[in-house]
Amino acid sequence: MSIIIKKGDEIAAMRVAGRLASEVLDYIAPLVVPGVTTGELDQLCHLYMTEVQGTIPAPLHYAPPGYPPYPKSICTSVNQQICHGIPGERALKDGDIVNIDITVIKDGFHGDTSRTFLVGNPSIAARRLTEVTYECMWLGIEQVRPGATVGDIGAVIQRHALANGYSVVREYCGHGIGRSFHEDPQILHYGTPGTGVRLLPGMIFTIEPMINAGRRHVRQLGDGWTIVTRDRSLSAQWEHTVLVTETGHDVLTVSANSPPCPDLAAASA
Ligand code: MF3
Ligand code: CO
Ligand code: CO
Known about the structure:
This protein has 269 residues and is an alpha+beta fold. The chain has one domain (8-268): Creatine Amidinohydrolase. The protein has helices spanning 8-28, 38-53, 124-142, 150-163, 263-268, and strands at 56-57, 75-78, 81-83, 97-106, 109-118, 167-168, 174-176, 183-187, 204-207, 210-212, 218-220, 227-229, 235-237, 240-244, 249-251.
């Protein structure tokens, strides 16, 4: 296990990559409406990344050990899909929730961020899951400072999810990120305060909790990528890429239309 500490120029490049990833979400947000297909959203994001930004969509042809090459440029995970949903013919319907996960490469560095979008007017239950998951991510972010541990991040996320009657997915986690898409350390979204890797300035990793309305267990679809809840309950996810600074943290995946830190998490800082 080796964690790559980033220095001046690398951090500057990661800020650019992070902002660009978030700007793809700003671009696509108004287009996430009933009737659009996930494949259309993929094509639009692909063109925006490659033609407007001059970024490389990191998911396209990504093939970690044990996985077939990922065939698209973004992930679109709808309703009971937890993560890694492959865009295709599916048209979004009024009341769906959809996570769009964007990872760009700019000048060799990765920026990774996702948001869960409400399509039309979802149920109160779906909106509450989406909102609590957003709070979970931000409560985790607010733990990030030198000397804190990875367990501190997981513990606050787990506590808030469970307090709301939800469960935390365990098979997928946040990750170090830089010149590689997925680096050490792993950032579990559950855990015990004071345990695990201790954070140091210059570490950069994602926090990307996947929270299920029902039980935590997962199932992989036959496409080799899409992960769904085993009990078919709804699942939501949000993701930011975060830098550990000398005094706390900086969120790198921010842009003009990033939703703000929620009050509950700001109060925990
Ligand atoms: N962006 C995802 C993450 O947050 C990884 C997607 S891998 C892909 O780590 F191949 F499905 F795109
Ligand atoms: Co990630
Ligand atoms: Co991601």
